[in-house]
Amino acid sequence: MTSNIKLYNMIVAKEVRRFFTYRGNIFAGCITGILMLVARYALWTALFATGNAGDATLAETMTFFVINDMLLVWLASRYGDTLGRDIETGDIALHLTRPYPYHLQMIAIFHSTAITDTLTRAIPMFIIALVFIGLMPPASLLTLGVFLVALVLGGIIYSLIDLIISYTAFWLTKYWYLSWFKRALFVLFGGLMLPLWFYPAWLRAICEVLPFQFAIFMPIGIFLGRVPLGDAWGVILMQLVWIAVLYLCERGLWRLAQRKLVVQGG
After folding, report:
1. Is residue 265 part of a domain?
2. What percentage of the chain's residues is helix, strand, coil (to nearest 5)?
């Protein structure tokens, strides 16, 4: 366990240092985050001006997207690309024979990217949104605490779904569309691009029987007060249920994938 933690820290530190070696990366990250914020603010300001936004407010919607974008920095992994590339090149065989877990390698590399994106993109975007747009605070400290619990559980759900989709690379000859497919599922059923409170009733009903909304949308709903504290415990219970189901699926699929391993070209 201790050796795995040391390895994780080494990989993260090396990848972060490599990123900051090129100063252009810092500038590009800041500009990207700010431009995305400005574009989204202009779009939603125009929409709310039409009076067709229902019971939502501009401040609530912008708070949703700022929190959503900051969370995606730590959740929007691309395990499918990493796994597919390693299978295609044959490096997967080498990784699986090493004395430390393959999953740990992928997570460490992704977290290093998340750290750099937080420093160069997410934090500047948050500061500008807080100063010039105005963001909604949580209703209470208890709300904030429940939100953080739901957030951790949501992150586990997101990662498990990502891994399950990524494992299909063992059965496919191409992997480039796995990350796109995963993001499409979360965009449609998880409310990443459009809050689910804007959805028609029939589509919202479909979303409620799937796990995607419990990754990010429901935790943010708790933060914004859209999910009352009395109902938030039910959300956390459903998150735990989905974690159990997805974990069993992930472990079972991983065992099958290791038996199915076929390296392209040999």
Report:
1. no
2. 80, 0, 20
